[in-house]
Design goal:
7 strands; alpha/beta; Rossmann fold; 252 residues; 7-stranded parallel sheet; 43% helix
Length: 252
């Protein structure tokens, strides 16, 4: 059974890995045996150090996923270092909260650029390498907000809905190359992105009322999920959106 989840000597790129969900997933993949390339617009040195302590090889690269030249350089550096790319975790994302009628155009553009265009550019660049290899696993980080409309998050909702359809489109198109493309749709997790929301008594009361498990998720609770989708344990799974939300959407 352990062999199904074994990622020994696999090579994984994790975007947005300086903190939060990305950092936890990068460390989790390393714990399963993978060598890791961690990227972000922020400093990734802490993540690199933690992965190296596990005895895995790791390099950190500063990447703006909205810039094709950065993304292409990320792929080239990974191939130059490791010779292949087995796994991409498309995690980089941002949130801009605002009533729809007051949302600034630049906020809309930025959210769509990072959350949707960025995931496409990374999948496209990595996908070219995986097509050459005739193998690969791409895991896009979506959100339950891509399946249901959440107030004051129109751009975020739309970007994550786009990620879900991008996942399905790429899964259908690239299965012939032995590339599996799936998505994870988290609910509310305790990260820097949600820090302000989690300080709100009203928001936390909403969580306790509407999430059957009565709490928000912790970043490490995505580790098993991402290892499953990256490993042979999910060998016949593609085009799937795996919801991890404590049961929140089960009652919607």
């Amino acid at each position: 059974m352990k062999e199904l989840f074994d990622l020994t000597d696999k090579v994984a790129i994790v975007t947005g890995a300086s903190r939060g969900l990305g950092k936890s997933m990068a460390i989790g993949l390393a714990q399963a045996g993978a060598n890791i390339v961690v990227t972000d617009v922020l400093d990734v040195n802490d993540t690199v150090k933690e992965i190296e302590k596990l005895g895995r090889e790791c390099i950190g690269i500063k990447v703006d996923v909205t810039q094709k030249k950065d993304v292409d350089a990320m792929v080239q550096q990974t191939v130059d270092k490791f010779g292949k790319i087995d796994i991409l975790v498309n995690n980089a994302g941002i949130l801009r909260m605002s009533p729809a009628e007051e949302m600034k155009e630049e906020d809309w553009d930025k959210v769509i650029a990072v959350n949707l265009k960025g995931e496409f550019l990374c999948a496209q660049a990595v996908g070219k390498q995986m097509i050459k290899q005739k193998s690969g696993r791409i895991i896009n980080i979506a959100s339950v907000a891509g399946q249901f409309g959440f107030p004051q998050a129109a751009a975020y909702d739309c970007s994550k809905g786009g990620v879900i359809l991008l996942t399905k489109a790429l899964a259908a198109e690239w299965a012939k190359y032995n590339i599996r493309v799936n998505a994870i749709a988290p609910g509310v997790f305790a990260t820097a992105m949600t820090e302000d929301m989690l300080k709100s008594k009203e928001f936390m009361e909403m969580v306790k009322k509407n999430v059957p498990m009565g709490r928000v998720g912790q970043p490490e609770e995505l580790v098993g999920v991402v290892v499953f989708l990256a490993s042979e344990a999910s060998s016949y799974v593609t085009g799937h959106v795996l919801v991890v939300d404590g049961g929140w959407t089960a009652g919607l």
